[in-house]
Amino acid sequence: MSRVLSTEQAKSAIGQVQSIINGGFTDQIAALDAQGRILSDPNVWDGPLAAQFRGSTWPETKAALDKAREELEQLRGQLQQISQNIFSAGGGA
């Protein structure tokens, strides 16, 4: 038989992780995306380094940010499901 344990500290930590994902972190990723799009406009910023930013730096960074956002959303969903399952099984709310 495997052990199942979920304390109030675990419940609180799950809530904090979800709050960070839902609020601050995904908002920050969106803010970075907005600024990256501005800097990718040659009418705003141009030159050799700006062209390098547009051509490779920003597309690679944006792809990594999009992947991070997707993985964080998956984590948030997994934590929600795990939390519900544990607290339902343990009689907690």
Automatic annotation (TrEMBL):
This is Pyrophosphorylase. The lineage of its organism: Bacteria, Bacillati, Actinomycetota, Actinomycetes, Micrococcales. It comes from Arthrobacter gallicola.
